[in-house]
Amino acid sequence: MTSVQVDKQHDGTDGAVDGGEGYQRGLGARQIQMIAIGGAIGTGLFLGAGKAIAKAGPSLILAYAIAGLVIFFIMRALGELLMYRPVSGSFAEYAREFVGPFWGFVTGWTYWLFWVVTGITEVTAAATYMTYWWDIPQWISALVFTVILYGANLISVKLFGELEFWFSMVKVTAIIGMILICAGILTIGFSDAGDTASVTHLWDQGGFFPTGIGNTLMTLQIVMFAFLAVELVGVTAGESKDPKTVLPKAINTVPWRIAVFYVGALIMILSVVPWTEFQPGVSPFVAAFQKMGLGVGAAIVNFVVLTAALSSCNSGMYSTGRMLRDLALNGQGPKVFTKLTKNGTPLLGLTFSASLMLVGVWINYVAPGKAFEYVVSFATISGMWAWIMILVCQIRYRAKANRGELPESTFKAPGAPYTSWFALLFIGMVIVMMGIDEGARVSLYAAPVWGLVLGVSYLVLKARNPEGAAFAKRS
């Protein structure tokens, strides 16, 4: 975020339209609330849950519930920071202020990378969904979707918000519809699964932990990936016309969103269809409809999850262009990314990010069976870095506020800093589990390489642009 934006937010100037920088800002509360709800529903649930169910069985429900509590702690920590000082764009600003300029640099670029990798993940998922209807190579679908979404991003902010509103509406409607259908099967007994559906499936197929607690812990990286990007609503709300009203409402809906869309949906699905009948790489929602004998329903759900994946990729592609421009404006990225088109689109940043997303096409070409697992692992580790910095910054902010060095936030995180320390320990445990998992370990190999690249880049930046390297605090 630039100093111009920060100054506007401190003096109360309406930031809906930032004419000085060319952006059009003004997402309404209706759009932000629906994006907040839809942001919690994505590939991690629609596709990733299939592998997790096969690995952990019904105990996956408990994993989502505990991880969901941790996510709520993270979101309340973010809310406290945003109510102290609403910052738009990324979490790098807090990292600069409370940890140091180098960590702000690392956080800004890592969060940009997270969205690039997430875009690859979502395109990979979309390509996987296409095989439900047509037997075509995944890399072809991934290429087509990447090109189409790149073109679709040449739109205005308001249209973007409206499109995401309806994408989210489709996802929410699909989950609620699935829950209601499963509830009908359990109570009335219609469909092919009506005679066998029972809540006892949650424990009569080898127990609640049929493959052991160890395997449940090993699914945590998939579970945490499902919640990645939920923090983006804080960034969006910080750019809204009324962040002090919209942000607390959006954050406080996190518990019921997780309870309904994850815990509730999984309880219903696993009660209707035993966990032993699900397979990795297949959406549990599509598989459930097929087991019920509702073939048309399975096709409809496959279409819904396809649009959900494309929606997430669309959001990621849009975000990366803006993040690159924010870094460039702060002197921490190439100046060429500061340029905008006539309608306020950071075209060069968008083009650069989209070109990197084409790596997903290559991954789907050389390893279609492992593509989703590889990119999920790297997206998880890069996305969790933002959570770590949010928690660290909140802990340091609270300490300063308690000493009277900074004004207190109007939206304090309950139980902090103890809840923030608990969340940090939980994230640390997930990282350890990723190190044990052979499939996820590749992301931990890549993380030090990325850290080395950023370290060298920062030294170069410090030598060429000391002011940009020291872009640390805002009054």
Automatic annotation (TrEMBL):
Location of the protein in the cell: Cell membrane
Region (Disordered) location: 1-20
Membrane topology: Multi-pass membrane protein
Residues in Amino acid permease/ SLC12A domain copies: 32-462
Keywords: Amino-acid transport, Cell membrane, Membrane, Transmembrane, Transmembrane helix, Transport
Membrane spanning stretches: 34-54, 60-78, 98-118, 138-160, 172-191, 211-233, 254-273, 293-313, 347-368, 374-397, 418-436, 442-461
InterPro entries, A to Z: AA-permease/SLC12A_dom (IPR004841), Amino_acid_permease_CS (IPR004840)
PROSITE patterns listed in its UniProt record: AMINO_ACID_PERMEASE_1 (PS00218)
Family: Belongs to the amino acid-polyamine-organocation (APC) superfamily. Amino acid transporter (AAT) (TC 2.A.3.1) family.
Name of the featured protein: Amino acid permease
Organism: Streptomyces zaomyceticus
